[in-house]
Amino acid sequence: MNISILSVGKLKEKYLKQGIGEYLKRLSAYAKVDIIEVPDEKAPEVLSEAEMEIVKQKEGERILAKISPDTYVITLAIEGKMKTSEELADMIDHLATYGKSKITFVIGGSLGLSREVMQRGNESLSFSKMTFPHQLMRLILLEQIYRAFRIIRNEPYHK
């Protein structure tokens, strides 16, 4: 299975890089996992609704350019469907069983994802009604993907 995490923005924090590196190493036993970064759009702190849409649009174009047509796309968005870790494991197992060997999880920038990216998604996933920094979301997502593979293989992992 090939899993990509497509994310807006560069990761700067050393502690997040270390955590992400650890989960990438652990996941290498189960799947090929790549992290793909697209540049975030520079914008002032205060934006009008129209300006926010322009920023999301530009970031969305960069995201869509990195997604191949044969990839199953899961967008991460507050309005997505919440799942338990077991349900995420079932979803990944089901996709693998039915020939969807390329999965891309998409994490938007600070303003979220464009309408076009959301429409390209085969599914939308929410981790919480709370907002998380998109850099931290990479680590949380990797941990949950790792947990999913442990569940699929009936291997022990702390609860």
From TrEMBL:
Keywords carried by this UniProt record: Cytoplasm, Methyltransferase, rRNA processing, S-adenosyl-L-methionine, Transferase
Gene3D superfamilies membership: 3.40.1280.10
InterPro entries linked: Alpha/beta_knot_MTases, RlmH-like, tRNA_m1G_MTases_N
Gene Ontology CC annotation, any one: cytoplasm
Subunit record text: Homodimer.
Sequence similarity: Belongs to the RNA methyltransferase RlmH family.
Physiological role: Specifically methylates the pseudouridine at position 1915 (m3Psi1915) in 23S rRNA.
UniProt protein name: Ribosomal RNA large subunit methyltransferase H
Organism: Weizmannia acidilactici
Lineage: Bacteria, Bacillati, Bacillota, Bacilli, Bacillales
